[in-house]
Every structure is written in C-alpha cells, then in structure tokens.
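Quick entry between incubations.
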Amino acid sequence: DAMVIQNPRYQVTQFGKPVTLSCSQTLNHNVMYWYQQKSSQAPKLLFHYYDKDFNNEADTPDNFQSRRPNTSFCFLDIRSPGLGDAAMYLCATSRVGEGRETQYFGPGTRLLVL
Amino acid sequence: AQSVTQPDIHITVSEGASLELRCNYSYGATPYLFWYVQSPGQGLQLLLKYFSGDTLVQGIKGFEAEFKRSQSSFNLRKPSVHWSDAAEYFCAAGVKTSYDKVIFGPGTSLSVIP
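Done. Structure below.
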C-alpha cells in the first residue's frame, strides 16, 4: 500500500544533542510537510517542500531545519534540542495540481529530550 | 483571518449512542474541509473530505459529515459509536495558496463509556 513512513517512532535525545527524524513516502507526492504537535494541541506546521523548494513558516525557530534529497525522502533536523522541543513530529504529503489536495500523514515520531 | 473552531474540547458518549462533533470555519470562500482522527500516540488518519457537490459526505468507519454554507459548519456524525472510536478528532480547512495549506481546529477529544 502507498503510504507515509516515519522513522523512528520514538526518539530519545539529550539536551543540545542534534537529532534527525526521517520521513519517506511511496505516494509520489510533490509536497512534503513537517508538523510539530504538543500534547492536547493541534499540529503546527513548521515548513514544507514543494518539489525542491523549501518554505519555512514565519514562526519556525532557526533550530529546526529540513532536507529533501529526493522526492521520496524528507528529514527534520533539530540542531540543539531543548526541553520545549519534546513533542510528536508528524510528516505529511500531498499532491498539488490534481484537484484533490489532501494531506496524508505518517504515524509520527515521538521525541523525548532529556 | 482564516480559522477553524471546534466548540467542544471534550465529549463523552456511551457506546451505541449517536455522535455529533461540531466544526465551524471562517474563510472568505468555501474551503476544502476535512475531518481527521488521531488515536493516542498515532498520526492523523483522514476520515472524510468535502471539496464540492453533495453536501453530505460519507467517510470511513461509518462517519459522515454535512457541509452547511449558511452556518459555515462541517459537523461530523456517527449514528452508533463504538469503544474504538475514542480518539482526538480534528476538523481542518484547506486553503488554496501555492500549496495545500491546512488550518486545523483545536480538536475534540472523544471518550466512549462502555
């Protein structure tokens, strides 16, 4: 089945130690998104890639970066995680241009910062 | 400003009872509308979506939603709730920009009493 995959499902890191979260998709979608979701809150968009074009939300901290080496993969890099960065990180994809612009989500990666 | 509201933060229903989750949107035009469900520790799963046409939309797991333009609402319903429906439900509006920007409501937490 076509899907959005996130690895790992759980990630523990230390305060200030860089961490990378991974997302891959078999949907061949041209847009990939990263969201941060804290407990009992709605997902908050951090940034997205439209093909190779990176689009950062205005209020996304510089501590968060992303890479998309090819259509299928997208990475979220947190350069110096703080305690406040502990959250669920959700990857989503969509295909612009087909008139069915729906975002499909992966299972998420739960990040714990010690 | 574009926004999505879900007036009920938490709802508790008995198993077998009917369910209605409320959603209102604020947008200049008719947005694309979605309902997502999130089980604890999981990603978001698309329940149903409305783009145009028939205002009563059928989704997965026995859910349906009705779009009412006059009320700017997109309420989610299910005639008989199962214990496995306990989860967080997010209403979302898709806004047409250069990509598929989605505005999420704050979510409604559903508890089901056996």
